[in-house]
């Protein structure tokens, strides 16, 4: 695989200037905020199921590493400022000190990881796109579990912070893995045939 900087956003908005890039970053932060409102409590865990992580990883795949990192950093700043952008309409700095703080802190890193892999062409085939999505999820789970460990006994950590979320992550990753190669096939004429 050769390094490249072309993403689906670059094909959709060729030669994007500073304003276009700023709008893409802001838009991705707002999509993440909207996805966070799709929250389902998990009775045995302080961490809810949300659409948030899917939006984080999609921002990486669509925007690429740098813009996705900035989008998720902006999302965290918006929520930290008190806007009701986190799961269940929560906001404020106190959320970062709670059980979900580690997951939130991982969002910029996870978006950048997924974006960097997409920039190298891993978003063009099912298996490699699945791997890119799972790599981003791995970053979220690693930091999330590290933060959750302060609130949940070690023997219950995986049952509270990982296992309930794996089936949904696999389904979401598989959907993205199927959708992105199809999107690139549609984008191929605009991409000069490089897709």
From TrEMBL:
It is found in: Cell membrane. Keywords: Cell membrane, Membrane, Transmembrane, Transmembrane helix, Transport. One of its GO terms (cellular component) is plasma membrane. One of its GO terms (molecular function) is biotin transmembrane transporter activity. It is a multi-pass membrane protein. The chain crosses the membrane at residues 21-40, 46-63, 75-96, 130-150. The keyword Glycoprotein does not apply. This is Biotin transporter. The keyword S-adenosyl-L-methionine does not apply. PANTHER family: BIOTIN TRANSPORTER BIOY. Belongs to the BioY family.
């Amino acid at each position: 695989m050769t390094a490249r900087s072309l993403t689906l956003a670059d094909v959709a908005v060729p030669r994007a200037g500073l304003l276009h890039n700023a709008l893409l970053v802001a838009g991705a932060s707002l999509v993440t905020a909207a996805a966070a409102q799709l929250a389902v409590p998990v009775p045995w865990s302080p961490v809810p199921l949300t659409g948030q992580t899917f939006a984080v990883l999609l921002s990486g795949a669509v925007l690429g590493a740098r813009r996705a990192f900035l989008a998720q950093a902006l999302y965290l700043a918006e929520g930290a400022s008190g806007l009701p952008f986190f799961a269940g309409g929560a906001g404020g700095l106190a959320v970062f000190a709670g059980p979900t703080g580690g997951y939130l802190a991982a969002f910029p890193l996870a978006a950048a990881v997924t974006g960097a892999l997409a920039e190298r062409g891993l978003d063009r085939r099912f298996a490699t796109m699945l791997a890119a999505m799972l790599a981003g999820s791995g970053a979220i789970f690693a930091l999330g579990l590290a933060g959750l460990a302060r609130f949940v006994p070690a023997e219950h950590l995986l049952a509270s912070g990982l296992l309930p979320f794996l089936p949904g992550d696999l389904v979401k990753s598989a959907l993205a893995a199927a959708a992105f190669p199809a999107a690139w096939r549609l984008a191929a004429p605009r991409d000069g045939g490089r897709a």
